[in-house]
């Protein structure tokens, strides 16, 4: 019984360590053409009913932008993870919320025709609380060719390192002039990422651990230990 209690106590520790140490990258693939991203990554759907992995991440005023050469609505090319990116149209910013929080850093690829844009990391949801870090960037359009079409074909990396725990990101700039891709949490490098353990994975791990403990306990009981 002591062994069983010890192993079960270990489960939440493993889960917490895995989540905090894991890098999450959103590539926006699978979201509907021109759809509001909404809760696609939050256990819900985009505005067209498509759903993705539940990372607990929601978006406000953000839209999926699919390369026109792939049948989409976007004047883009050479995307870091073809063929979908993120844009905002109706406001001069899009908000991303992650209620569980993230730390260390944040990074992304961008293609911009805006002279001034800012991405800010905040301690609370809705771009509120304490400003933990921000990055300013401008126009990087040109010096590239499409695939075969697309004017937004040059992609640079933006990154922010910060201390503390962040729960939201504000993508600011001129509406309809910036495309984002491979939005990455927990790293200042969007080119390296790992998949987060899903709740199903954690549940299966816990069941397996419980079964191992139960079997070992039965063996000990037979031997009188």
Automatic annotation (TrEMBL):
Residues 1-21 form the signal peptide. Keywords: Signal. The keyword Signal applies. This is PEP-CTERM sorting domain-containing protein.
């Amino acid at each position: 019984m002591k062994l069983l209690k010890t192993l079960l106590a270990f489960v939440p520790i493993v889960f917490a360590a895995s989540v905090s140490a894991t890098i999450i990258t959103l590539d926006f693939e699978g979201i509907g053409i021109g759809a509001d991203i909404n809760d696609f990554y939050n256990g819900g759907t985009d505005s067209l009913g498509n759903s993705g992995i539940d990372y607990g991440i929601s978006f406000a005023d953000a839209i999926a932008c699919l390369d026109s050469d792939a049948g989409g609505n976007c004047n883009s090319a050479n995307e870091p993870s073809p063929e979908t990116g993120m844009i905002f149209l109706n406001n001069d910013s899009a908000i991303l919320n992650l209620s569980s929080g993230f730390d260390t850093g944040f990074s992304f690829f961008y293609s911009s025709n805006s002279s001034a844009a800012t991405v800010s990391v905040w301690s609370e949801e809705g771009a509120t609380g304490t400003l933990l870090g921000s990055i300013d960037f401008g126009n990087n359009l040109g010096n590239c060719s499409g695939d075969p079409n697309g004017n937004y074909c040059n992609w640079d990396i933006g990154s922010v390192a910060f201390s503390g725990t962040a729960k939201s990101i504000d993508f600011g700039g001129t509406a309809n002039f910036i495309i984002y891709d491979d939005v990455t949490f927990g790293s200042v490098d969007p080119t390296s990422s790992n998949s987060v353990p899903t709740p199903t994975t954690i549940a299966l791990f816990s069941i397996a651990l419980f079964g191992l403990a139960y079997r070992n306990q039965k063996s000990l009981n037979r031997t009188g230990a």
